[in-house]
């Protein structure tokens, strides 16, 4: 996509299966409409990876700029690159210490900078692992230090595991947070799972967590883009993390992923309808589970996302009761270039 007002590509992590008339992304502001004029971005080399999948047509696409030194001080230029790429986020390495494998990483949606993005972190880590070999990486982000361990076993693409900043979670306010969000989604209180109360969870960004009572409720997502965007901007949320619990047996033997959730993440504040895989929200959800006392010993949660968009994604979330940090793992694969 070459401009922010163009339709967002369904395969680029943004399409809603049943969008309403109000799901058109907002028009650019004066500051973002002129971003391409500040610094030439035509020569910026953008790699394209899909994270939390082993297939280019699955997972969540992210742009990855391994060398953004030339535009490191130009936020408008990075926004323009992200808008041209058209994915929910593009990651930019703006500073580096190759010997220490330490990098400053910034993230931009097509509309603005985002403090932390999980799937773009996984994509960047895999791109570096493919270039320089597996091992530990350290990313300095606006949310804090993020350590990522990359591994390659020769069978499939590299795997990356990020360790989040300390998480936290608090009950959502019924009047100012839950009610207007449900109205924008077209949901009622009866659509929620009473065993999993609404919370605002944090792992670098704030996310409202709402648990659907049924898989059918989660699948039927046709929301008011502008109304939800307004609520999220007032509250400072990055996504609304909608989940449905399929399995709830953390003591099950013989299965690495013995707790299964399905998730969807509306992302109107980033100018896109929906993310098919949201690592930052998954990490925040780990903090949510921990605060609710649903973590007994080391617990691994498998999160299935993107299924209703036709871009299935697998995220593995590891949480322990005595550590406020969450660990999110996934693979990533290059997306073949199409000449853009």
UniProtKB/TrEMBL annotation:
Question: Catalytic residues?
Answer: 89
Alphabetical list of Pfam families matching this protein: PhzC-PhzF
UniProt superkingdom: Bacteria
Cellular-component GO terms for this entry: cytoplasm
Does the keyword Isomerase belong to this entry?
Answer: yes
Where is coiled-coil annotated? none
The record's region (Disordered) falls at 1-35, 149-175, 320-340
MF terms from GO for this chain are: isomerase activity
Q: Which UniProt keywords apply?
A: Isomerase
SUPFAM superfamilies in alphabetical order: Diaminopimelate epimerase-like
**Keyword presence, Isomerase:** yes
Compositional bias, Low complexity, is annotated for 10-35
Question: Which protein family is named in the record?
Answer: Belongs to the PhzF family.
Q: Which NCBIfam families match?
A: PhzF_family
Name the chain's protein: Oxidoreductase
Per the UniProt record, the source organism is Streptomyces violaceusniger
């Amino acid at each position: 996509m070459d401009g922010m007002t163009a339709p967002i590509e369904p395969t680029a992590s943004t399409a809603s299966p049943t969008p309403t008339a109000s799901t058109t992304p907002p028009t650019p502001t004066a500051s973002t409409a002129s971003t391409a004029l500040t610094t030439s971005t035509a020569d910026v080399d953008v790699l394209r990876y899909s994270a939390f999948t082993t297939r280019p047509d699955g997972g969540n696409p992210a742009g990855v700029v391994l060398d953004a030194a030339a535009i490191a001080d130009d936020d408008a230029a990075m926004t323009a690159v992200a808008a041209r790429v058209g994915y929910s986020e593009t990651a930019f390495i703006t500073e580096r210490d190759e010997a220490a494998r330490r990098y400053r990483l910034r993230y931009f949606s097509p509309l603005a900078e985002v403090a932390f993005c999980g799937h773009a972190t996984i994509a960047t880590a895999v791109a570096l692992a493919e270039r320089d070999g597996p091992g530990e990486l350290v990313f300095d982000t606006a949310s804090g230090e993020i350590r990522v361990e990359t591994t390659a076993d020769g069978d499939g693409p590299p795997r990356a595991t990020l360790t989040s900043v300390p998480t936290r979670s608090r009950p959502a306010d019924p009047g100012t947070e839950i009610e207007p969000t449900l109205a924008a989604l077209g949901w009622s209180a009866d659509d929620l799972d009473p065993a999993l109360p609404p919370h605002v969870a944090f792992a670098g960004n704030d996310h409202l967590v709402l648990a659907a009572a049924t898989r059918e409720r989660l699948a039927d997502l046709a929301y008011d883009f502008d109304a939800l965007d307004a609520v999220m901007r007032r509250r400072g949320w990055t996504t609304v993390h909608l989940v449905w619990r399929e399995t709830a047996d953390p003591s099950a033997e013989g299965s690495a992923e013995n707790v299964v959730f399905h998730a969807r993440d509306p992302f109107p504040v980033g100018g896109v309808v929906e993310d098919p895989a949201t690592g930052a929200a998954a990490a925040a959800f780990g903090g949510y589970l921990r605060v609710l006392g649903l973590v007994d010993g080391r617990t691994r949660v498998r999160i299935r996302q993107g299924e209703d968009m036709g871009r299935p994604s697998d995220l593995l979330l590891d949480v322990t009761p005595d550590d406020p940090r969450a660990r999110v793992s996934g693979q990533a694969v290059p997306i073949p270039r199409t000449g853009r």
